[in-house]
Amino acid sequence: MIYPVVAYGDPVLRKVAIDFTKDELNEVSTLIDDMFETMSGAQGVGLAGPQIGKAKRIFVIDSNLMLEEGSEETGYKGAFINAEIIEEFGEDVGFDEGCLSIPGINGEVVRPEGVIIKYLDESLKEREEKFTGVTARVIQHEYDHIEGVLFTDYLSPIKKRLIKSKLNNITKGKAPHAYRMRFPKK
């Protein structure tokens, strides 16, 4: 099932998501499949629970889609359930980020080049792994979503002023988009 992507301005995007309980984990495989389908349909590289209206600690990524041809970096496709970042490390690196919930807006976000994260994978196996490069960036972006943080929060005050009218248009449902979206109710 393809979910509509929740647009900027919806309160669910600002909530700190909660863990899945053991009972809820029995139902998570269908949700993961639906999230991958939704992400793919919107041509995204990551999607978090709040972006489909669920304030739960889950996100899916496929960083392979961001790798340039001939890159020596390896991508990662998988689900992160009840995730907790243990450590961020390395040089701070700037990169032009966008978000399915904020269509048509991009901006440079500076993030550490690596991350160590503890999570349950789609098989509900507990993992603690180290990621770097593009994959670390996608994880950090999606992890921010389950913490109620958006990439726009990292932008400079000048850039925030420049995009203010575009953000207002998104909250009013006046944003061009090529996939199903759920805009905030008036």
From TrEMBL:
- Record keyword Transport present: no
- CDD domains linked to this entry: Pep_deformylase
Co-factor remark? Binds 1 Fe(2+) ion.
Q: Which Gene3D superfamilies match?
A: Peptide deformylase (3.90.45.10)
Statement: the UniProt record of this protein carries the keyword Zinc? no
Which terms in the Gene Ontology molecular function aspect does this entry carry?
A: metal ion binding; peptide deformylase activity
Instruction: Give start-end of the signal peptide.
Output: none
Q: Any idea which residues are catalytic in this one?
A: 142
The entry's keywords: Hydrolase, Iron, Metal-binding, Protein biosynthesis
- Binding positions for Fe cation per the UniProt entry: 99, 141, 145
Quote any Pfam family the record assigns. Pep_deformylase
Q: What class of enzyme is it?
A: hydrolase
One of this protein's GO BP terms?
translation
**Enzyme Commission code:** 3.5.1.88
Catalytic activities: N-terminal N-formyl-L-methionyl-[peptide] + H2O = N-terminal L-methionyl-[peptide] + formate
Database matches in PANTHER family = PEPTIDE DEFORMYLASE (PTHR10458)
The record's similarity note reads:
Belongs to the polypeptide deformylase family.
Task: Kindly give the NCBIfam families that the UniProt entry links to this protein.
Answer: pept_deformyl (TIGR00079), PRK00150.1-3 (NF001159)
Protein name in the entry: Peptide deformylase
User: Which gene holds the coding sequence for this protein?
Assistant: def
